[in-house]
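Subject: Interface between my chains keeps coming out wrong

I've been trying for a while to get a sensible model of this assembly. When I model each chain on its own everything looks fine, but I need the whole thing in one frame so I can look at the contacts. Pasting all components below, labels as-is. Any help appreciated, I'm running out of ideas.
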Amino acid sequence: QQPVQSPQAVILREGEDAVINCSSSKALYSVHWYRQKHGEAPVFLMILLKGGEQKGHEKISASFNEKKQQSSLYLTASQLSYSGTYFCGTGGVGNQFYFGTGTSLTVIP
Amino acid sequence: GAVVSQHPSRVICKSGTSVKIECRSLDFQATTMFWYRQFPKKSLMLMATSNEGSKATYEQGVEKDKFLINHASLTLSTLTVTSAHPEDSSFYICSATKPDSGSDTQYFGPGTRLTVL
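Reply #2:
Try treating it as a single job with all components included. I did that and got this:
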């Protein structure tokens, strides 16, 4: 039931762009994106509730393709503060909520 | 706002003892709380979904007799790790959703790092 993310890890230089993908084998009702710093709890980035919905938060945006059961997170002009592990989270039937496998993002100067 | 606290933040215990972790929603009432555990460099794995006033729903493979969950009020859920063993050492995180918010956004506690010696 756990969504699969790709890539597993990525290293960027400051200012470069990245895309993180999240795929589910189950029907998706919502997709969340979180960022977690080492030793800390995840921090909410955004939620997408409708198929085809796209949202943006500063230079981080996301899309949700309900039919393909996929979501993508776009990070543009990356900053050092973007480093961390990114998780998608998916809501399904009932109250269950599952995190994706995670993508480690490292931004270097 | 939506603030969730956890206590303790860090606990070290001897093998065979029980440990209770509290999760509180400080400024809202949470009808549903979730408990996760996370191993180093791994994703968060849902352990159980806790609904106020009813029995928790455990994920497959999670021993309900070992991980006791109580959601006695709309602001408090507790996870008790009974007869803890070293393999139970992990980072335990709770989250809560706000009812009537129109979404299932998760608000996370800061986590509890459990080390079993």
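Reply #3:
Confirming on my end. The CA atoms of residues 54 and 63 of chain A lie 4 Å apart.
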